[in-house]
Amino acid sequence: MTCQRKVTLFAGLIILATAVTLIFCRPTSAQFGRGGGFGGDQRPPYLVAEGLIIVIAPDDQSVAAFSTHTGVWRKTTVKLADGEKITPVVGSQIAYFQAGDALFAFSAPKGSWHSVDIQAGAKVEAIVGSGYAIVQVGNKLYAFSAMAGRWDSVDNAPQK
Length: 160
What we know:
about 160 residues, mainly beta, four-stranded antiparallel sheet, 13 strands, about 40% strand
């Protein structure tokens, strides 16, 4: 086999490997979906990550989550202030959102929702990783673990 044929064969294998990767590898970041029957200019009806699917009810009063680990849908209901909308943030194994005076998180490995009440009227920003969420409210730092499937907190966190 000549050198030119070897190079051509090698280039062909690289192209094939790239195509297979693009076709068969799952995304690791979240994607909004527009499944059958949905559409229009409204908020996408579901959010997909590696370990979960999130569906927000049209009235923003409930959220359902599907765990790829358990193969089961779980629903949680929320109480929102007038005009408030659910805005989930996801990692590959977690979904998080704030609704009113509570923080909600879904653990894909556990296949369950967990919430914690926070200071009334607090507006927060979360840091969400592949398997955790961190939220600071005043001098309290809340952390959610997807593997443990629970919230915990510590007082006297340094102020931002």
